[in-house]
Design a protein that fits this description.
Elements (H helix, E strand, L loop, with lengths): L3 E10 L2 E11 L4 E6 L5 H9 L6 E6 L2 E5 L4 E2 L7 E4 L11 H11 L4 H14 L15 H13 L5 E5 L7 H17 L3 E5 L3 H7 L2 E6 L2 E6 L1 H6 L4 H6 L3 E12 L2 E6 L2 E7 L8 E7 L4 E3 L6 E11 L4 E8 L7 E8 L6 E6 L6 E4 L2
Parallel strand pairs: 3-9, 3-10, 7-8, 8-9, 14-21
Antiparallel strand pairs: 1-2, 1-4, 4-5, 5-6, 10-11, 12-13, 12-15, 13-14, 15-21, 16-20, 17-18, 17-20, 18-19
Helix pairs in contact: 2-3, 2-4, 3-4
């Protein structure tokens, strides 16, 4: 049985439809990340599950309990849903100690003093902050505040936790450490989690599944590896990862093998959606799938190295490609490499199997 089940959810702000029939299931012990461009509906969906937004149609079920059912007119209050919620801003009470912040949900539920003290101690101990209970939020680092917010969400022992951009306020180094720690905590406690993030790396590192939203509908649902390597739409291909984009006309089709005319130059790729000869099409390739060679060969195009940018763990190479046969039209092509290259002309290899071709929008 799914821990959270969302069926055909519709939600509007005035005349604007934000969610257009979204359905999903979060299985027991699973972390599901919601991704999408700004305005895609991911935060609205999370808030609807939490009870902070009211849909106009659909159902939300937790286990065997209906949290929301438009037809049956069921709409449980947020505090009655037994869902942990970590806000993007952490939303800690600045005038209350760590202990008081974490205890607040328990006092709201009118638990006894002894039980509250025991649960707060256990929740703070699980995140390594039991010794900071008498401090105030302003006396904590960003990472410590994030942990306190998480402890507050866990203190009443929900089976499902909702996370709204939980690591966005941390600096880059701390965020890398926190995503590992957070995933381990969720899995070790046997929780299910629904997480909104704009950071693709964070989502792929933490989540068991990704749900990619596009204008209130589901563009793709799958494992992080599947969504990244096998996008089913141009939107998914361009949203995930760093990529190059080429627009052209289909010259030939052989099964899923496609030959494109891009400004008088020929590229070969694999169709991810059906295209026909004469159609306008868009080809997408990830930066890490491109390599630079000295000698001509299959799938190689001569380009001039314009820039080599040192990124620490790798280099970003920027090539100048004279796309049009006349040499008047140029396109910058980016690639990743372990080492920088000498200036000059290189044979840039874009393997056919890695060049993803979609119908032009």
């Amino acid at each position: 049985m799914a821990e959270i089940l969302v069926e055909n959810l519709h939600l509007s702000y005035g005349s604007v439809d934000v969610l257009k029939g979204v359905s999903l299931a979060v299985e027991r012990g699973q972390i599901l990340a919601l991704l999408g461009a700004s305005g895609s509906g991911k935060t609205t969906l999370l808030r609807a599950v939490a009870g902070l937004e009211t849909p106009r149609a659909g159902r939300i079920v937790q286990g065997a309990t209906s949290l929301f059912d438009a037809d049956a007119r069921v709409d449980l209050a947020p505090e009655a849903r037994n869902l942990g919620f970590v806000f993007q801003s952490y939303a800690l009470w600045p005038h209350r100690t760590v202990d008081d912040n974490v205890a607040y949900p328990l006092r709201l539920r009118r638990l006894g003093r002894a039980e509250i003290e025991e649960r707060v101690k256990r929740a703070l101990g699980s995140i390594g902050l039991a010794h900071l209970g008498d401090r105030f939020p302003h006396q904590l680092s960003g990472g410590q505040q994030q942990r306190v917010a998480l402890a507050r969400a866990l203190v009443y022992e929900p089976r499902v936790i909702l996370l709204d951009e939980p690591l966005s306020n941390l600096d880059a180094k701390l965020r890398e450490e926190a995503r590992i720690w957070l995933r381990r905590l969720i899995t070790n406690l046997g929780l299910s989690a629904l997480c909104v993030t704009h950071d693709q790396v964070e989502a792929m590192a933490m989540a068991d599944r990704l749900l990619l939203l596009d204008q209130g509908t589901i563009a793709q649902d799958g494992t992080p590896r599947d969504v990244y390597t096998h996008p089913t739409s141009l939107y998914a291909a361009e949203f995930m990862g760093a990529h190059n984009r080429f627009e052209g006309t289909v010259m030939a089709v052989d099964g899923d093998r496609v030959t494109l005319d891009v400004g008088g130059r020929t590229l070969r790729g694999r169709a991810r959606r059906p295209v026909g000869v004469g159609d306008r099409a868009v080809a997408v390739i990830r930066l890490e799938r491109i390599t630079a060679r000295r000698e001509p060969g299959p799938d190689r195009v001569p380009m001039t190295l314009a820039e080599s940018l040192f990124l620490g763990d790798r280099w970003e190479l920027v090539f100048d490609w004279h796309v049009a046969a006349s040499g008047e039209t140029r396109q910058l092509v980016r690639a990743y490499a372990l080492d920088g290259l000498d200036p000059g002309t290189w044979q840039v290899e874009m393997p056919e199997q890695d060049l993803m071709v979609f119908p032009a929008p």
